[in-house]
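S.,

As promised, the beta-D-glucopyranuronic acid run. Input:
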Amino acid sequence: MKQRLYKLVVILAIFSIFNLGAVRAENGYNLWLRYLPIENVQLRQAYQRQLSSIAIYKHSPTIDAALKELINGINQMIGKVPNISSIPGGAAINFKTNRLVLAKLDQPAIAAQFSTVERRQIGQEGYLIKTIRQNRVQQILIAANTDIGLLYGSFHLLKLMQTHQSLQALNIQQWPRLKLRILDHWDNLNGTVERGYAGYSLWNWQTLPGIIQKRYIDYARANASIGINGAVLNNVNASVKSLTREYLIKTAALAKAFKPYGIKVYLTAKFSAPKELGHLKTADPLDPAVIKWWQDKVKEIYHYIPNFGGFLVKASSEGQPGPGDYGRTHADGANMMAAALKPYGGIVMWRTFVYENKKGADRAKQGYEEFKPLDGKFADNVLLQAKYGPIDFQPREAFNPLFGAMPHTHMMMEFQITQEYFGFATHLVYLGSLFQEYLRKDTYQKGPGTTIAKVLEERVNPETADSNRLTGIAGVANIGTDVNWCGHPFGQANWYAFGRFAWNPMSSADSIAEDWLKMTFTNDPGFVNPIKKLMLGSREVAVNYMTPLGLSHIMNFATHYGPGPWSKFPGWDARDYHHADSVGIGLDRTATGSDAVSQYAPALAAKYSNLKTTPLNLILWFHHIGWDQKIATGETMWNSLVHYYYKGVKQVAAMQQIWQSMKGKIDEDRFNYVTQLLKQQHLEAKWWRNGCVLYFQQYSKRPLPKDCKEPGKAYWNYPTFKPDLPFPYHLDDQ
Ligand code: BDP
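Predicted complex:
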């Protein structure tokens, strides 16, 4: 009996050390930083030899963060805590005892291992990882010009281990292509998150500045692991309260906690703050008292937060105050704030999302119309932050014509990681594919090949490019207090992918998904390969059952969840977005219509003006097409539209099947959770399909193609399509 008990204890101990396979219970909190024990004995032993010790030259908060991560990660993965030692400044590395060395390139012994080009190329945030040998003794060097480079390099090494790669012959040079890699949190001070679907705000303003939750540090670690270096803490629909002394002190505590991880904090600045907080009569950006108010406020901010990043501003849009209220331009407003921030090295991110909802106007044109004339008028510490499409984070839009049209202005991209228009945290939609699609779009600004990635990196005009240029990208975060941070377990992939694309806009959605799956679930190719394929197709699947062929903004008006091509409220009519009538469907944005095509480079304008050369996935964005007209699918417009909706639903069913075949390959909890989510997604895909097909059929008056089963009508209160009905659970059998 005793012996049996002993055996059991031993078995349990082995299980708990190595947490074998699918038995480990997971709630997703550890994201892609799980550091699971390496089961492959050979690999584990190799890592044990290679990483038995870590040497550093100097301590600093950032290097200590790197050490902590390495010790923890290595210990968890190979079951051994590495020895830590210090090398005296100026001394050479001891090949006998130093296995992994973390050192800045200002150490001559380290610099000697790399070429001048390598050392320069990685700049202020990059790193080099190299396996070197002396007398058959092997050593791994992580080298950088800065401490933060060393932290990023450490995460890279841990990623190699998590994805089970050999460390035998490393020769890695990595550096970020964009300077500002920022998460925008649309968090309100009362703890709610605008368009947030993963719980409440991470920032507990009530307990700040006294309490620094572990969660804040884990957030910073996760961001640093993918190179994110900035966080805008509050909603673009801003509250002036965040600029009060009380809240600045709270923000300062977060800024201090994030600093070792290379993350700067930014705040949104409400344009009317001089009136609301300063009790001035005006917020006119040219008024001397207003200028002075902002100067004083910025001075106060830097007093509390010495490494403050700057402001993000939504102005003169959707009712927000702005320079337009005083007959001033966006440049007047942005430059006034930029001047106040300049002495401290702060910047302004000024959004180009200006939406007035003017009746009859093509909303897609407004941003360009307001900003294009201002090209070259912004101060050099201002970036214009433009959404990827000209309307609003739709499942697919044409790209925003401001990219490529502002050669004399710093342009940054705004993606939305939170799935406002993509089924919230219920639908599995891997946005890596979307990020890749837009970053690789050709603006033709300087002939073919002028991709948005190049525009963002300011590589379009190599003559004027210099390494101090201000470049950036922002993603609206999908993070909240849910135990797994993002709601949907696959939502984490979108946070991860955003960081990776921010680091290098020419990254591949495919390899990012692969890394993420291996680190987040398992290295088992029997899981990784099929699920990677599922992820890569998932965005297109959602487009198919929501807004195929270039349709946009036909979601429920109030929630942006579920179908609503019939949504009609005072000042808003979904029909302005789809133009379905007895003749056909889609918006004519060519010269015969709103002429939005003219905002693109001539080569593109010509391409989009002709239905035959317009990409199939954007035809309804640019053209009004007759129901019986044949399109590139080989079928009529009506039959094609219906077929896309039906295809989308079938594809979700296929996703469910693939997922079911993964049973046992990963932990039960996450498996079951995703199983339920996919079931719900399938129901909702039908909700979309049935609603849209039945609604558009009222205009087309055509029968469904023969292979499409009549959609269930029960939910729809057909044909009135009353909006805001509860969710159709009974769609199960329709
Ligand atoms: C829209 C959101 C709204 C945001 C706005 C913005 O529906 O909540 O305030 O964008 O980006 O997508 O400012």
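Confidence is low (pLDDT under 50) at residues 8-22. The first helix runs from residue 2 to 18.

- D.
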